Amino acid sequence: MATNQKNRPSNFVILTLKAIVAGQMQVGTNSGNPFSFVRAFLSQGKVKGTDEYKPSMFFDVKAFSQDENVSEVVQALADIQDKEYFTVKGRLGMEQWIDDDGTKRQKFIIIANSITPFSFEKDGNEAADETSAELEGEPA
Fold first, then answer.
1. Which of 44, 76, 126, 136 has the maximum number of C-beta atoms within 10 A of its C-beta?
2. CB-based contact 91:12 (threshold 8 Å)
3. How far apart are CA 67 and CA 18, in angstroms?
4. Per-residue pLDDT tens over the stretch 87-133
5. Beta-carbon neighbour count of residue 82 at 10 Å?
6. Cα–Cα distance for residue pair 16/87, rounded to 1 Å
7. For the chain, how many structural domains are there in total?
8. The CATH number of the domain where 65 resides is what?
9. Residue 62 belongs to a domain
């Protein structure tokens, strides 16, 4: 399928992540609209020739409804279970804040446009990657 690259924002990402906290749904205090979020990580696999894992990358994945109805992507993200793999398409961003002791903090976020379950098993449409065993490592 053809894709129009000039309309895709430069911060658009497609990542397969592993949830480390089950999805949660809430209602925004300012908007009154439902949103959901999941804490997840991306394993970079092992250092070649060793059993040592490269550092993992952690993300908060968020999805928002435009009105009081729960959108499909908000529901799909809320349904993610702990340790479940999923593929997210969306925009990469960063949240920054000052914590209680005055330290500036930041974290990566992905604002989801779509959520799809993911499996390393062959399903006829996609071949399992030979490196999948390396990708299944827990965060370092």
1. 76
2. yes
3. 28
4. 999 999 999 999 999 999 999 999 999 999 988 876 544 444 433 33
5. 12
6. 4
7. 1
8. 2.40.50.140
9. yes
Distance between CA atoms of residues 31 and 8, nearest Å: 27
Structure tokens at 114: 């779509």
Query: How far apart, in whole angstroms, are the C-alpha atoms of residue 132 and residue 44?
Result: 11
What pLDDT, on the 0 to 100 scale, is given for residue 43?
86
26 within domain boundaries = yes
Residue type, 78: A
CA distance 104 to 122: 44
DSSP result, the chain = ----GGGS-TTEEEEEEEEEEEEEEEE-TTT--EEEEEEEEE---BPTTSSPBPPPEEEEEEEE-SSSSPPHHHHHHHTPPTT-EEEEEEEEEEEEEE-TTS-EEEEEEEEEEEEEE--SS--SSSPPPTTHHHHTPPP-
Residue 138 lies in a domain: no
Assess if residue 114 is contained within a domain. Answer: yes
The whole domain housing 81 covers 5-132
Contacts of 16 (CB under 8 A, 6+ apart): 42, 85, 86, 87, 88, 118
Burial of residue 63, with CB atoms counted within 10 A of its CB: 0-12 exposed, 13-18 middle, 19 or more buried: buried
